[in-house]
Design a protein that fits this description.
With 83 residues, the chain is mainly α. The protein contains 5 helices and no strands.
Amino acid sequence: MTQERPELNYYIKDYCKRMSKGKMRTYDQQENLPWQLEWVWHVHRLHSLAYLNDCNKQLSDELVDKKCPKLIIDCDKQDKLKK
């Protein structure tokens, strides 16, 4: 998905549609996104000023942040693995 093709254009349009309708704001909405949409979103966020401007223009000044599950590390287990 690095060259312009119908498949890429489809996912870009799908991403834009979901973003404009607020269907990517919550963890539950983000949890089951296809990897292609994740990729398009990742690339969009790499251009942080463009991403901020797009969110401001299309989403009433609300930045959509990626919701990541918390990583819980068991320190005791980590110590045992080091030994």
